[in-house]
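Weekly modeling sync, notes
Attendees: AB, CL, MP (scribe)

Item 1: holo prediction request
CL wants a bound-state model with fe (ii) ion before deciding which constructs to order. AB pointed out that an apo prediction alone won't tell us much about the pocket. Agreed to run with the ligand included and paste results into these notes for async review.

Input as submitted:
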Amino acid sequence: MLTPHQQAQYQAEGCLVLPGFKRAAEVAALRERALALIDAFDAGRHRAVFATDDQARKTSTATFLASAEGIECFFEEGAFDGDGRLVRDKAGAINKIGHALHDLDPVARAFSHGPALAAVAAGVGLVAPQVWQSMVICKPPAIGGEVHWHQDASFLHTAPESVVGFWFALEDATRDNGCLWVQPGGHRGPLRERFGRVPSPTTADGGVALTMQTLDATPWPTLDQAVPLEVPAGTLVVFDGLLPHCSAPNRSDRSRMAYTLHATDGRAAYSPLNWLQRPTLPLRGFD
Ligand code: FE2
């Protein structure tokens, strides 16, 4: 249950930090599960994703779209050399795992549901939450790249905007290892970009291409307008889908693993042009 002060802070800043939201044992269980999923992942299956020919693009888009209703590992850029060989061990080369762990994986499912999370969702205004996606963000040492300024509403568009991000630190996040940076109050600005499906009958993508479209030229914040969220493992950061945020590269010698959930309000219209569609997997809330 959020206090009135916490709710007011979320409304004012577009962001709320809840340290100690998850117990150490829950965090350890999900972290170990993520490492096991990576261990079980056949790295050879994906090499094509990073080549540049048409067939590779088709494979890449198809793999991404299918992950809406599955569990898939995605590599960091720079994970392969020019000959398509991994430049480091597999566990140190994965960017993220997505996007339906919260429904399909028993450990992630347990982590992603329950009365505490349902109460937070209600406290930030989600009346009928629908959890569309889950991601383990690995941010491995050295290779874990920068994530540029963006708004999560660009990826999960509803009318009116309703997406909320739930970001859980599975390891301590610091400036050194690429913690989140947010622009407090920035959620009152416009949605700048929209990522989604466009018809593409002439491409190798099976009739669907994914593009990023500029909606508004408002500049992204500068770092002096932003604050770093250095948080210990177990912290939950809840943020408005319009809140600009980014993270720096991981320059440390340790990973910065996080888990995210994104939910929209079922009262808002979910766009059929969003990349993420779930034609067969039923949606549920946090209960
Ligand atoms: Fe994000």
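Recorded for review: The helical segments are 4-13, 24-40, 54-66, 101-104, 106-111, 115-123.
Action items: CL to compare against the apo run; MP to circulate these notes.
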